[in-house]
Amino acid sequence: MRFAVDAYVGFARTRPWVEAVASSLTALFAPDLMAERLAAFEKYYTWIDPDGLQYFRTGWSSPRDSEHALEVVVAH
């Protein structure tokens, strides 16, 4: 998990900012994907405090955020 987070932060830090914004579009084009990921987190990473996953349970990205990200990516 730490490797994945570090890799994502490294990606966002070293790539053009618009690519980092574009990487958030999973929420728009695959909204069920996070639900699958959350189920896997809960099943395989039982040591994670459930409160630590609350962000992902409560709508980790609103449709408005995704639509704005898409507008930014298309514009740039």
Task: Provide a quick synopsis of the model.
With 76 residues, the chain is mostly helical. It is built from six helices and no strands.
Overview of this protein structure:
This protein is globular. It has helices at residues 2-14, 17-22, 26-29, 33-44, 54-57, 63-75. It is an all-alpha fold.
Helix content: 55-70%
The structural class is: mainly alpha
Number of strands: 0
Count the DSSP helices: 6
Mean pLDDT: 85
Biggest beta-sheet profile: none
Q: What is the percentage of strand-forming residues?
A: under 5%
Number of domains: 1
Our measurement of the CA-to-CA distance between the termini, rounded to an integer number of angstroms, reads 31 Å
Q: Unreliable segments (pLDDT under 50, ≥5 consecutive)?
A: none
Task: Summarize this structure as a short list of keywords or feature phrases.
single chain, mainly alpha, 0% strand, 76 residues
Outline the secondary-structure elements.
Elements: H1 2-14, H2 17-22, H3 26-29, H4 33-44, H5 54-57, H6 63-75
